Amino acid sequence: xxxxxxxxxxxxxxxxxxxxxxxxxxxxxxxxxxxxxxxxxxxxxxxxxxxxxxxxxxxxxxxxxxxxxxxxxxxxxxxxxxxxxxxxxxxxxxxxxxxxxxxxxxxxxxxxxxxxxxxxxxxxxxxxxxxxxxxxxxxxxxxxxxxxxxxxxxxxxxxxxxxxxxxxxxxxxxxxxxxxxxxxxxxxxxxxxxxxxxxxxxxxxxxxxxxxxxxxxxxxxxxxxxxxxxxxxxxxxxxxxxxxxxxxxxxxxxxxxxxxxxxxxxxxxxxxxxxxxxxxxxxxxxxxxxxxxxxxxxxxxxxxxxxxxxxxxxxxxxxxxxxxxxxxxxxxxxxxxxxxxxxxxxxxxxxxxxxxxxxxxxxxxxxxxxxxxxxxxxxxxxxxxxxxxxxxxxxxxxxxxxxxxxxx
Length: 408
Description:
The structure is a single chain. The protein contains 15 helices and 13 strands. By secondary structure, it is an alpha/beta fold. It folds into three domains: about 5-190, P-loop containing nucleotide triphosphate hydrolases (Rossmann fold, 3-Layer(aba) Sandwich), CATH 3.40.50.300; about 215-270, GMP Synthetase, Chain A, domain 3; about 285-405, Response regulator (Rossmann fold, 3-Layer(aba) Sandwich). The strands form three sheets. Strands 2-3-1-4-5 form a five-stranded parallel sheet. A hairpin with a 2-residue loop joins strand 6 (about 220-225) and strand 7 (about 225-230). The chain is globular. The two termini are about 45 Å apart.
């Protein structure tokens, strides 16, 4: 009775190996999509945003929203619940989340030389070799970033990370499946009482981590036999108060018997611990070609716990809207290329739920009328009092909150 994890380079014949292994062992196949869907259901985070945790490029808003950290907590919880059963083949990125203390896991890596992978991609996708190579490199960025973030390893295929590293360009899928199945039957990777206990510890740590992120906290969490250790890796001015709050939240999770806190190496760096306030808009996009002005405005808003990303032209703003879905946009009208009115029009056509605040020093009364008719939330003139702008942002966020509640 064991669990097999498979992590593969792109175009390394993973699908054929997994199918053959499933037939040979009878084990249930679990992929990232299944775990992502479970994490979405547990957290209420849309699955598309959960899937983004596997991407090398985080959202530009993540340093304010901590959405990736929240997603990772629920992915761990979904994975830990899945591990309550044995006889699993977990293939994809998520297997790397399983702690080493869970010893009934056979960790497998499938890889091939680049030439064979390019040939496979060229044939499968009917594209030229240079296009296939570009696609492989792009997908490898995600794999490399994922492994580095979890294991601090620059090489996602490093043998030290796995029990077996198998070359799919030199072995047939069935031959690989035979080798994996044989090793999975070894007594070394069979479930033991200690290993099963490690699964329970993994689940408890994930539940505590989820409870903390729901309250806006991001700290390291480990659990062992009901005892939970929380590691604070950012500097905080009132450490005792934070420790007390963290212990209170963690202590309410079923199964927690004791909670201890400590500071990690990051505590002594310059970064400041910030608890996320879910009542504040955390995805604000500032769009203005006056770089000094917009950077200063971003810093002044951050002092009021309003984190923002910055775009300096209309094209960049629309790209952020497509990829990262801001809640509130603060938009200048006069910009090179696509002007603010056209940006507003396109945003309201594609994603009308985004609230757009116009902030301009050159607009006319006719511009005001046009913007409000297009669906702008407010129209403000430069220079603007930062308190007035902050209050306007909060009103926009309240409108968003009410609409979300109405939709259930």
